[in-house]
Amino acid sequence: NTGFSDDSKSLEKNLERQIMEMRELLTIELRVGEAFELLFDVYRECSEANWDGYNALPISHEAYYEAEKLLKLLPLSLPMPEIVPEPTGEVGLEWYREKRFVFVISVGGNNIITYAGIFGESNKTHGTEEFFGELIPPAILQNIRRLFS
Q: Is the pLDDT of residue 24 over 90?
């Protein structure tokens, strides 16, 4: 910075703000990229029958693609989930805040999201929602936000 005028100071603050915004976007992109890599790793490692040694079903192409669609549709303001293979052949997406504050969704490539959440000692929810790859059902987004509110 070599300027002393108000305009110069304003430009400097503007540049600093833009640099911070770019850093935040890069951080978000890295988190999203890591989630997609983890999803692919889980799929690759669990796409054969008995992947867990206890007769788990393989994760199908359809389950993988459905989970990928969900990740793409998640608002960037939400934390990225952990990706977990389910012995039923589904892909689980899990958000964990702390003990007794967890929300999990599972997809199996059949246009259905199964979900369950614990929000403290006695607040629980579970159910199913249709998912056709265009919009995340409002109930799912509300529960993820509820976990982190």
A: no
Give the model confidence (pLDDT) of 112-136 as tens digits: 999 999 999 999 999 999 999 899 9
Bridge partners, 82 (sequence order): 94
Contacts of 116 (CB under 8 A, 6+ apart): 103, 104, 124, 125, 126
How far apart, in Å, are the Cα atoms of 64 and each of 4, 85, 141? 56, 10, 20
Contact 8, 1 (CB under 8 A): yes
Is the model's pLDDT at 81 over the cut of 90?
yes
CB within 8 Å of 61: residues ≥ 6 apart: 109
pTM of the model as a whole: 0.80
Asked whether the predicted pLDDT for residue 149 surpasses 90, the reply is: no
Under DSSP, is residue 103 helix (H, G, I), strand (E, B) or coil?
Answer: strand
Burial class (CB in 10 A: 0-12, 13-18, 19+), 120: exposed
Closest alpha carbon to 66 in 114, 110, 128: 110
